[in-house]
Design goal:
heterodimer, A: 311 residues, mainly beta, 7-stranded antiparallel sheet, 34% strand, B: 311 residues, alpha+beta, two-stranded antiparallel ribbon, 7 helices, globular
Chain lengths: 311, 311
């Protein structure tokens, strides 16, 4: 019998700016950020959190083993900027790419910042060729009245019924916390890049959360329904799908490629680049009425084959 | 089990003006601008600047105190290798995360003399709730509107405090003229202001978050310099430039996060603290900018040198 999945809407408050780097990047700033957090980043952060909770001095293998268990027991949607009222999903509309109900430029003005960095060499002056700019989602924003508020991100986590990490049972509390031995594994996470400079620290913040617009329709197969034609995570490219939006080559950096069955792990951070695959970008408008997809561990979606779809 | 993301709080007082260049241009009066938070526009010290100087000072400390070789290059290499273990390099991620330094208390000239402005949110974030009766305990207002709130310290001569503010129901902060209100012991929220921080500042005034950014930006130090032609002893044409800095006496707060249960951060801070006080951070060091005096839990005063510093 297949396991059932339970969905939880989760939101985090940004304690510091958040940088989600991606490849290949655009050319306007040297290191741009995504304006949302892919599920893969959540998987990595939760894996780190659980491993360091369970082991005092974890080895590379411990991280890898826990990572595999997290993959089996959790599904992470993409997380989007949330201001306490609106979730800013991207949408490729007829005229422009919008975030929520505002234009991309207005979204960038409100939530996105950047900073220029340079290394200093032994002479005490800027090191040659080290000047670079990093774009980030800011942790504060000014609302329309000029008040300064915290930026939050919101998404959805699916947890397998009777989920276990090793011999530890995973419990979901009334407050939507995910507990292992009473420890909330989502209490504080470090997401994305530039963490050495304090970036990416997020705090679990369930206050005032609205429901994330994903509905589980076949809980035993982790099939979800999105109540919109605009997809809210990457969808595996399929040439039969008619769409308006964008296609991108999706990859990522890590110690190893979780999709690679062969052991090609490295000890250098970010050295392993995962296998490139084509996906429809979040916000792409899918022209047919099929809204049921299978969600994988990293939040990416796959549409079923036609015979399965209409079964 | 290791899983504590709580960063260590470090306080710093600017002994000199602090200039962390933004590396770009803004339209306005000043040529060389400083780094600001994109959402609030309040100047800050980026985590990368703190990380860079901490690493360098830790390396210098190791060269001076821990390695006895006569060969300077060899000493430097050994010290750098030691620093790599904590701060990381391209092959290994460091174990420390340096968050941006925030302005907590900013000195502004007024008819009452210098007052240190802050916000309720900053005080609540950086200082713990008072647990015992102490002369450094302060009361903060429950709600802040567009007024200036004088902080009255508990158990200090209350008649003196009343006398101080008797004649002035308004306070000028640069071009702003704000109605004042005294926050006395009738308020419900009490915070413990650390004695060391208390000794760094005089009168504390709380303003709204909206006003804080304007007041800080309008009271930054702006200097004008020009290059002198050595042959004539007069200004060289086209060489006049202006630069801004965060004023002397400003109190900053920054945090250092530690990965994997590494408790060595207090020792590192004790090692580098004297260098912050005598060399400093940021640009314009040759013009006497940049020195910072640090305070943190576990500070060893013997390690940080003498107590001489301008008020």
């Amino acid at each position: 019998m297949s396991d059932m999945w339970k969905e939880i809407t989760v939101s985090f408050k940004l304690k510091s700016p958040l940088h989600i780097g991606y490849m290949p990047f655009k050319g306007s700033v040297i290191s741009p950020t995504r304006y949302y957090v892919p599920g893969r980043n959540l998987w990595g952060a939760i894996t780190k959190c659980i491993t360091e909770y369970l082991y005092k001095n974890p080895t590379a293998n411990d991280y890898r083993n826990i990572g595999a268990m997290v993959k089996d027991n959790f599904r992470f949607s993409y997380f989007y900027v949330y201001d306490g009222i609106n979730i800013y999903f991207p949408r490729y509309t007829e005229h422009e790419l919008k975030y929520g109900n505002i234009s991309r430029s207005e979204f960038e003005h409100r939530f996105i910042g950047s900073q220029i960095f340079t290394a200093i060499d032994s002479t005490g002056t800027a090191k040659n060729a080290s000047l670079h700019e990093i774009e980030f989602i800011n942790n504060k924003f000014k609302d329309t009245n000029g008040n300064i508020k915290d930026v939050r991100i919101m998404g959805c986590v699916l947890v397998k019924e009777n989920a276990k990490i090793g011999d530890k049972t995973v419990i979901i509390s009334d407050k939507a916390e995910i507990l292992i031995d009473g420890f909330n594994i989502m209490k504080e996470l470090i997401l994305g890049g530039e963490s050495k400079y304090g970036f990416g620290h997020v705090l679990f913040d369930p206050s005032g959360s609205i429901k994330f617009p994903i509905k589980t329709v076949k809980a035993e197969e982790c099939k979800i329904e999105i109540n919109d034609n605009y997809i809210i995570t990457h969808l595996k490219y399929d040439k039969t799908i008619k769409f308006k939006g964008d296609i991108e080559l999706l990859t990522g950096r890590g110690y190893y490629d979780p999709k690679d069955s062969k052991d090609r792990s490295t000890y250098k951070p970010g050295e392993a680049i995962s296998k490139l695959e084509y996906y429809f970008s979040p916000g792409t408008y899918i022209l047919d009425d099929t809204k049921v997809y299978t969600m994988s561990w990293d939040g990416t979606l796959k549409r079923d084959e036609p015979e399965q779809r209409f079964r | 089990m290791a899983n504590d993301l709580n960063p260590k709080k470090v306080f710093a007082r600017a002994i000199d003006p602090i200039h962390i260049g933004a590396g770009g241009y803004r339209l306005g009066l000043v040529d060389n601008t400083i780094v600001r938070d994109p959402a609030t526009d309040v100047p800050k010290i980026p985590g990368s600047s703190i990380a860079g100087v901490t690493r360098e000072y830790y390396t210098i400390y190791a060269m001076e105190k821990e390695y006895t070789s006569q060969d300077e290059a060899e000493k430097r290499k050994c010290a750098e290798d030691k620093a790599k273990k904590t701060f990381g390099d391209e092959n290994k991620k460091g174990t420390l995360r340096f968050y941006d330094g925030q302005i907590i208390l900013f000195p502004v000239s007024s008819q009452e003399g210098t007052v240190w402005i802050t916000t309720k949110e900053l005080m609540e974030y950086w200082f713990d709730e008072a647990k015992s009766e102490d002369s450094s305990n302060i009361n903060i207002p429950q709600k802040v509107c567009d007024k200036a709130y004088y902080i009255v310290k508990e158990n200090k001569d209350s008649s003196h405090s009343k006398q101080e503010n008797k004649d002035s129901s308004y306070l000028n902060l640069g071009w702003l003229f704000l109605e004042t209100e005294k926050v006395d012991s009738g308020c419900l929220k009490r915070l413990a202001l650390r004695k060391e921080i208390d000794s760094w500042v005089g009168k504390i005034v709380i303003v709204s978050e909206k006003l804080f950014s304007h007041i800080v930006n309008d009271n930054l130090e702006i200097r004008t310099s020009v290059k002198i032609d050595p042959s004539t002893g007069t200004a060289e044409p086209g060489k006049l430039f202006t630069y801004e800095a965060i004023s002397r006496g400003t109190v900053f707060g920054f945090e250092i996060g530690v990965d994997k249960d590494d408790k060595g951060v207090t020792g590192i801070l004790n090692n580098v603290s004297p260098y912050f006080k005598f060399i400093g951070i940021g640009g314009m060091g040759t013009r006497g900018f940049g020195r910072l005096e640090l305070f943190f839990d576990g500070k060893n005063d013997k390690a940080s040198g003498d107590k001489s510093s301008p008020a």
